[in-house]
Predict the structure.
Amino acid sequence: MPITIYQDRIFALHTNHTSYVMKKEENGLLSQVYWGKRIDAVQDFDESSLRGENSYHMAADQAMEEYAPFGGMRYKESALKLEFADGTKDFRYQLAGYQRMENGLELILKDEFYPCQVKLIYRLYEEEDIIRRHAVVENLGKEDILLEKCASAQFGLAGCDFKSLQFNGAWAKEFYKKQDSLQGGKKVYESLRGSTAHVANPCFVLHRDADEWNNDVYFGLLAYSGNFKVSLEATPYDWTNVVIGINDTDFSWVLKPGEAFETPAVYAGYSAEGFSAMSHRLHQLQRRYLMPKTLSDKPLKVLYNSWYATYFDVRCEQQKKLAEKAAQAGVELFVVDDGWFLGREDDTRALGDWTPDPEKFPNGLNELIDHVKGLGMEFGLWIEPEMVNENSRLFREHPDWIYRFENRPVLKGRNQYVLDLTKEEVVSWMLETLDRLLSDHDIHYLKWDMNRAISETGAFGQNSVEHKMVWHTHMTNFYRVVRELRARHPEVEIEACASGGGRADLGAMEYFDEYWTSDNTDPLDRLFIQENYSLLYPAKYMRAWVTDSPDERKVSLPFALHVSMCGSLGIGCNLNALEEEKLALIQEQIGVYKQIRNIVQFGELYRLTSLEREEIQTVEYLLKNQGVIFAFLPQGRFGKDRFRVKLKGLEAAGTYRVTDRGKILEKSGVYLMEYGLEVNLRGDYDSCLIRFQLL
Ligand code: DGJ
């Protein structure tokens, strides 16, 4: 039974290996009492979990509440803050009821005096050991309620000695992993940029002494691409308070009579077997339930992207030549990045004018598309629909369509403004413009970019509260446009990009088929970015292009190819200027990738060794009885050329045929997992691809 309820006061959510237990306390508060390995005897939890209240310690402040409102005598980080029409600012609730749902549970917290309730909604993914949580606040009265904070979920973890992993990156430095110790006070990770952004990911990953394979990890990922906040607080009462959801900075929501506010969901779980099991559970959940169904069980094609080859200088003939080389190499999807639309000579102009530039494409874009299709490839385009340049037709016609404050000069980022997506006319324009682009051309793929943060959100109305509704409204309308576009063009693959990996989150995953991982394509940096990225997101969503090597780093092409083959392979070299032997090597490796991509894109990923600790990075992908291993030695030292690596996930009693650069071995699963496989690498930037198969 996934849900057990004991005497209407203990509520236990069970997945295959975990239990999450809540309790209605004697004073009516709802608290969390346990999260960890599965315990079926839930009646054992029927003892008071609240510490005794005394003159100095207030019960509600101490309690590991399931969804603590601001107010009362609570001083911990809250999940909810609201104001009733008469100025009363606290939500004084009782657990008023519950309802079982298919694979889930709904708990209802009702205010004791005011017509307002909060539903806490849980859905269980038993096999993946993950719980989905979100909250819905309902105004049941006749007057407005002002919401000032409405998190998706709150979690309590016993103890104040956790370590927290976060990804405090920057542009071209995505998924830069840091570990904080939570011993006292509060740690906040957030975005206030109107997108997920690079500075943190909307997630928490907490542990004490976990490694890849051992010990407890608690994790949760927010399915939201806008301003978020993750607050981790070591309370004075020896438990850690985790609150995750929409950022409350510059957020308000007016809840009119009869209306409800629904938060984004959090997908949370517990692993007793370290980070590896966490990643497997998350990847499986994403593959089975979150990715758009159109492509979730199909491998992504090998693409070519023109950005690093031609930047803004896009011309029909030069793109045709690139396409010919790409087809020769085995590319399946040819993508023209920025620079294809009306007057786009550089980044100061043309955003918003989404029609092909007649000077660059005198016979229209279809000439190039037909050429690409004639070469046996599909065609794709770059767009950045939420933005406009001052120097554009769109802005000249609609100068009032951007976020701005009336009496100040408007700020530009990358020379562009952000379109005011809270205006219905802008939403319709965007949808119709993109719809027309896709209807008029045979386009199979879009790269949806976002290259500046949102600011000066003053366009929604004159009322200062409505200004604070802009951030979230922008996000819901952005999702609405993508959802409707996908419904009209279900065959089109869409990649999420925001100056690289600034939109890698589970909110975007519901609408996009992949993420552009980073503008940083340096193979060595990528090894770190990709390893950390894989903690949360699967290889399929990690687009990885091979580009021309920068002068300062002499990375070998085979190494660069292997790095990109660890995700969804793309090519971004200037093929028009590439030597024939390099093109032949790319062609050969694209051929290899096509043989193994199902394993890479759908297999279980094991981070066998890491450059954080070891001399080589080794990553294994295992799909049923077949696997591949990529190994990377960036800098050999002291002539060492043999590294023993223990494989994971194999059948101990089975025999595996291992193929390593022409050498074939047959070894038992237990040997490969316990003794290990010898990997031979030497010198600088050496790498290899090893394949294995259960006999
Ligand atoms: C930022 C993206 O991350 C790049 O890949 C490229 O598409 C440029 N924008 C184009 O302006």
Notes: The chain has a mean pLDDT of 96.
